[in-house]
Structure formats: structure tokens, C-alpha cells
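Give me C-alpha cells for this 233-residue protein.
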Amino acid sequence: MFAQQVSQSTEMYLKAMVELSGREAVGISRLAERLNVTPVSANEMVKRMDDQGLVKHTPYKGVTLTEKGSEVACNVLRRQRLWECFLYEHLKIEWARLYELACSLEHATAPEVTEALAVFLGDPKTCPRGNPIPAADGSFTPLNGILLSEAAVGETVRVLAVNAAATDVLTYLQERGVLPGSELTVVEAAPLQGPLTLRVNPAEESGAVQKEIALGLSLAEFVIVQSTQITEE
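Here you go.
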């Protein structure tokens, strides 16, 4: 299968493209930031992947996956997110560390192991961070939500997924209760791209009290949410 013929670094780039923007165009600067590399390094890798037929780079518009690149990316995402489920459900690994640890396993997982893992887990559709797990054929249904940074002041939303990759960012969100399934109310949006003030609304049965937190817009862009009015219809 083609997915087995590319390097680990290429797999990481392709996976990052799906994580950042699904199958839409993504800018090289955003790709570099996601992977913690320089824009120059990202540009060089994009050129190589373009030559391999994995992506198409259109100057000033961004980079998009080809059919071949999408196949590889979804294959990697499937492996990684299945491992996240296993680590969380069966090894009780801390939520914030799942992405990092699953990344170390995904590249060494043979196709037959991936599918055996899916069967063992009961063919889950989402990972513990709330993101969709591609099917064996690469298909998946994108989340029907918006970025938390786009939510209106006064709106109450439910967190669908967290799309961050860095462990320190995931830990920061975890400590503040910004997790899949939690409800947040946007209390205030500071001007000039300032932080959001959010009220975290815990489940009634948890016995926890409401609390307010401040979250910068760059962090809010990692959180995918849906209005509670939509989900309750």
C-alpha cells in the first residue's frame, strides 16, 4: 500500500494538513507552526511532496492534498486515533498525553495490526479528543461545528473536539475543563484580538461549581464547538 512507502516526516506533514483544515488549502506558515519547524523547512518539504504527487501547492493560495496524499494522511490518522482510544480506555493514560504517545506508535503499526485494533476497540468513530477516526477506506464525516474563537458573546456551546497536538497546550486546556463534552458560555471577547472570557458549565451531576477562565484566541482556535441550541433541536 502506498502509505507504507513514505517517510515518517512526510506522514506527519500530510496528517497535519488534515488536522488543520480537513481537505481544504492550508498555508505553509500554518503548517510550519503546527509542526514546530521553520517556514523554509516546510516550504522545502512541500516542494518534495508536490514532486511525489502527494500535494498540490498553489502560490498565495496554499497547499492541498491530492487523492494519493489524502489516502496516506487518513491512513495515518486512523492509526493514531485508534491508538489514542486504546491508550485512554485500556491503559488509562492521561488525556493530555494521548496525542504525543499515539504519534510514537502510529508509524510502526502494520495494516493488519491497525484493523485488529479497530475490531478490539469496537470500531470507534471518534478519538478521546473528539476528532473523527477515518474508516479503513479513508472516509470520514467532518465535525459539524465552528471554532470556539468564532462563537458569539453570550452564546453557550458544547465542545465537540480539541484539535491541538502539543502536550503543554492539551494540558492547559485539560486543567481548565475545556474538554470534549463540556459546555462553555462566552462571557466576553476582549477587543484587538484579546482573550475570550469563558464560563465553564460543569455537568449538574458532577457537583462542581461554575468557573470563569480566560482563553487566548490562538488557543480557542484549537477547540471545535457547536451551539447547544443546535444540539438540542
